[in-house]
Specification:
The chain is α/β, with parallel strands linked by helices. Helices cover about 40% and strands about 15% of the residues. The protein has 14 helices and 13 strands. Strands 3-2-1-4-5-6-7 form a seven-stranded parallel sheet, sandwiched between helices. The two termini are about 15 Å apart. The model has no long low-confidence stretch (mean pLDDT about 95).
Length: about 375
């Protein structure tokens, strides 16, 4: 049986929310039926590159759109589609998806999917960007055959009132359930004593995640509970800036930067509370993982309310200052609440979401 070749389009395959979603798809989909070819345009070896190759996937790089003109960009995309004999295009590049979908249409690819992973497009913007986004939305509307989104708000942000299939970012529930052995393993690795309260955060070190404010909150929390640490998992372009801020505040012994990790499912177990003051989000898979793990999470009210699957999520406005966030965080119990039964039959179970996607791929 000939495999169906799926072109997964994203800027890179380093560890992040949407990249993790695609990897979960690759790990769990029927790889006897489907082959994933990853079209990317960021230099360097990717965090997921070795695993992609091990699972039978393939990475193809083209020139970054900023370093070429639109005609050459389109030519490179068409070349990849033809050489790899692509049957389905699945673009995760948000407003940049239009050019990939156009290339697919020109190459007569019958299934052309665009996937929204964020609520960014719902925000107020200037006239120039509004015009650019209008053009982008027009291209997406003209050349997509299917529209996906991780949640209702992410769907509206990119497609406005056009119909879309909501496919939440699912996870492997067994993998992320609480495990006492993992807690001991990670705390031993990080040299964190049992009686230290650990505030955790998982996310790319970029503007939307609001790490600057997160550090401010922890600094205030540290005054309330001196025996506490903040653990940050993730990498990004703000890393050096954040490290300097931590050093200036003399918090380097209390704030740990772990960088990108492929054992995040273990690290959650070492946390006592989760802090997530994002400026904007789609429907973060991280918050699904925390709820499966049983962690209480204090989350920005800018995060879509759809992510609240259990009573473990608490929303709080960014209008409140860092002292108020710290006080609110201190109110929460560190006793884990197991509420997996509330979500195990939902689309957040990776197996259920994959069935939806496979149907679209197979048509």
């Amino acid at each position: 049986m000939k495999k169906i070749n799926i072109l997964q389009i994203t800027s890179s395959m380093n560890i992040g929310g949407l990249e993790t979603f695609i990897m979960n798809l690759l790990r769990n989909i029927d790889r006897d039926k489907f082959k994933f070819i990853f079209l990317t345009y960021t230099d360097g070896k990717y965090d997921y590159e070795d695993e992609i190759n091990e699972l039978g996937g393939k990475i193809v790089r083209i020139t970054h759109p900023k370093n070429t003109n639109i005609f050459n960009h389109l030519k490179q995309i068409k070349k990849v589609i033809k050489e790899e004999k692509i049957d389905v295009i699945h673009s995760h590049t948000y407003f940049n998806s239009g050019i990939f979908l156009l290339a697919g249409k020109l190459c007569k690819v019958k299934t052309r999917i665009v996937h929204s992973h964020t609520t960014l497009g719902a925000k107020k913007i200037g006239i120039y960007k509004s015009f650019k986004w209008f053009i982008a939305r027009t291209l997406i509307s003209l050349f997509s055959t299917d529209r996906f989104a991780c949640g209702r708000e992410a769907a509206y942000a990119l497609y406005r009132k056009k119909s879309a299939t909501v496919i939440p970012n699912g996870i492997d529930f067994k993998k992320f359930s609480y495990n006492e052995n993992y807690r001991k393993e990670i705390r031993n690795e990080l040299k964190i004593e049992d009686d230290v309260k650990v505030i955790g955060h998982v996310g790319r070190l970029d503007y939307p995640k609001n790490h600057n404010y997160l550090i401010d909150i922890f600094e205030e929390y540290k005054k309330i509970n001196p025996k506490s640490k903040l653990v940050l998992v993730g990498d990004g372009n703000l890393k050096e800036e954040l490290i300097k801020k931590v050093e200036n505040r003399k918090l380097e012994k209390d704030i740990l930067f772990l960088g990108s990790r492929n054992d995040v499912y273990k690290i959650y177990n070492a946390f006592d509370l989760f802090l997530f003051p994002s400026i904007y989000e789609g429907l973060p898979v991280t918050l699904v993982e925390t709820q499966v793990n049983g962690l209480s999470a204090l989350v920005s009210s800018n995060v879509p309310s759809e992510c609240k699957l259990t009573d473990n999520i608490y929303f709080y406005s960014l209008d409140n200052d860092s002292k108020e966030w710290a006080k609110k965080l201190n109110e929460f119990s560190t006793v884990r609440k197991n509420e997996i039964d509330k979500i195990i039959n939902s689309d957040y179970n990776i197996q259920n979401g994959i069935k939806k996607i496979e149907k679209i791929y197979l048509k």
